[in-house]
Design goal:
Layout: H1 3-19, H2 25-32, E1 34-40, E2 43-48, H3 51-58, H4 60-74, E3 79-84, H5 94-105, H6 125-136, E4 146-149, H7 156-170, E5 176-180, H8 181-192, H9 202-209, E6 214-218, H10 226-241, E7 245-250, H11 262-269, E8 272-275, H12 281-292, H13 303-313, H14 317-334, H15 341-348, H16 362-373, H17 377-381, H18 387-404, H19 408-414, H20 420-436, H21 438-453
Parallel strand pairs: 2-3, 4-7, 4-8, 5-6, 6-7
Antiparallel strand pairs: 1-2
Helix pairs in contact: 1-4, 6-7, 8-10, 12-13, 12-14, 13-14, 14-15, 16-18, 16-21, 18-20, 18-21, 19-20, 20-21
Bound molecules: adenosine-5'-diphosphate and magnesium ion.
């Protein structure tokens, strides 16, 4: 039984437990913070990280519920034994630890995300060219790191994967590392625990990371934990001095990366920063055409429809592709002779159009609020009740309500799926604070100013 198979089984169990609606959201969160370590002689070893989880799992009804779901998924009866996360390593043979380490640092690339499948246009050609060039000419002083920044859905991740796919094919001798910065943080934090499940020490992870020829970090804005920034900084310097090529993406210009220390940001500025913008009309159309390439017979779409999509949805290529998929999907249901503009407009009538450049959206409000407070999306969506975070949420709720008349439910969805009652009390709290707290009132005004300047 491989380690990853246990992960699959455990995910299935947790999904079923969640769907049963047996537990409250809070309890569920604790339960989910567990792993199935192994099943041996009908004993399932489940590891927990905190005593709260242990207490919850030890409750008779919880235990019974999980035992029965697990037995069903596993295919025969098991009993559950709880072990503390940090003790798992002791139960693990050396080679398994090694296997985990390798698995952890092994990178796979999405095969669809290649240079060939990437449509070039004015808005992205510089980024495209830099990524392609670095594949054949790594680590030259001028272009290291390459930093690609721009809004979500504009092809940053696609380009990093394209580098990975290209190198795998053309230069298989190169070691390539790719990670979302959030995942990298988990790897590092895990390594910092002296007895960690993967058996990695910080030194070991560091030495593995610096051996790479290419180091691709996606969404660097999420590298917010101080302790991991520290490690990242040394790994980064070592990689540069060894002549490795570093490519980083971010959702904002390096200078605006509030959560990162200046010494890191100034390192990023030493290379080449390239903005990737939203595709112009022609590029958007070419992207759509690329998507239907080879399937023209099966899905006949009028040119006018492509124009319509390219005009309406090109703010975010993910939405652009999504709108096309939606049309094709509906065409398979209704089977029209051809997808024409009437069909398209009818199907896409209810899509939220976030295209107009100056149109204020809830996302823009969120961005402005987090920027103003120097927070990340994770912070504002998370559960911490620190005053600064609470205030940031109140400002966000207040402005979404006042400026966009958003429903509490949809504001809640933007805020880590908070309940609408929580949002409505947050709004009331904001109204109070505006009357009684000058600082809060100023914050609201400042954020509003930021939004108007945009
Ligand atoms: P980001 O990382 O910037 O948020 P992604 O790289 O995930 O964006 O891109 C979102 C989707 O749009 C992906 O499916 C990607 O393949 C597609 N995409 C973005 N830009 C292009 C492009 N220029 N040509 C083809 N597909 C693109
Ligand atoms: Mg991305």
């Amino acid at each position: 039984m491989s380690l990853s198979s246990y992960e699959v089984i455990w995910k299935q169990v947790l999904d079923q437990v969640e769907q049963s609606n047996f537990f409250t959201e809070d309890t569920l969160r604790w339960i989910k913070n567990t792993t199935l370590f192994k099943i041996e002689n009908s004993i399932a070893y489940i590891s927990y990280r905190s005593m709260v989880t242990k207490t919850i799992l030890n409750k008779e009804e919880t235990k019974n519920m999980i035992t029965s779901v697990l037995s069903e998924v596993w295919g025969s009866n098991v009993t559950i034994q709880l072990i503390q996360y940090k003790d798992m390593e002791k139960l693990m043979p050396e080679e398994e630890i090694q296997q985990r380490t390798n698995q952890l640092l092994k990178c796979t690339f999405n095969e669809e995300y290649t240079f060939e499948n990437f449509v070039e246009g004015k808005s992205n050609q510089e980024a495209y060219a830099a990524c392609l060039a670095c594949c054949n000419q790594r680590g030259t002083h001028m272009f290291n790191p390459i930093m690609i920044y721009g809004n979500s859905g504009l092809g940053k991740t696609h380009l990093l994967h394209a580098i990975g796919n290209y190198l795998k094919e053309e230069r298989p001798e190169c070691n390539v590392f790719y990670a979302y910065s959030g995942d990298l943080v988990s790897i590092l934090i895990d390594a910092m625990k002296s007895k960690n499940v993967h058996g990695n020490t910080v030194d070991k992870v560091k030495s593995l990371l610096v051996q790479n020829d290419y180091f691709l970090i996606d969404d660097i804005q999420n590298l917010t934990r101080e302790s991991s920034q520290e490690i990242f900084f040394t790994v980064y310097n070592e990689l540069i001095s060894r002549g490795a090529q570093i490519v980083i993406t971010s959702d904002m210009h390096p200078n605006e990366l509030n959560g990162l220390p200046t010494r890191l940001v100034s390192r990023f500025n030493a290379g080449l920063s390239i903005n990737i913008g939203k595709p112009e009309f022609e590029t958007s159309k070419a992207i759509l055409k690329k998507k239907i390439e080879g399937n023209e017979e099966a899905c006949q779409i009028e040119e006018e429809v492509l124009d319509y999509l390219a005009q309406k949805f090109s703010n975010d290529v993910r939405n652009l592709e999504g709108s096309l998929n939606r049309l094709i999907f509906n065409a398979t249901l209704e089977n029209p002779d051809v997808i024409d503009i009437n069909f398209a407009q009818r199907i896409l009538m209810n899509e939220v159009i976030v295209n107009e450049n100056d149109e204020l959206t809830i996302k823009k409000i969120k961005k402005a609020v987090t920027r103003f407070y120097g927070l990340t999306y994770k912070d504002i969506e998370g559960k911490s009740r620190q005053k600064k975070l609470m205030n940031a949420r109140h400002v966000f709720v207040y402005l979404s309500r006042e400026l966009l008349h958003k429903a509490y439910i949809s504001i809640g969805q933007e805020l880590g799926n908070r309940d609408h009652t929580t949002i409505s009390s947050s709004y009331e709290r904001a109204c109070q604070l505006i009357k009684n707290d000058v600082n809060f009132k100023m914050a609201v005004e400042k954020v509003q100013e930021m939004l108007e300047k945009k």
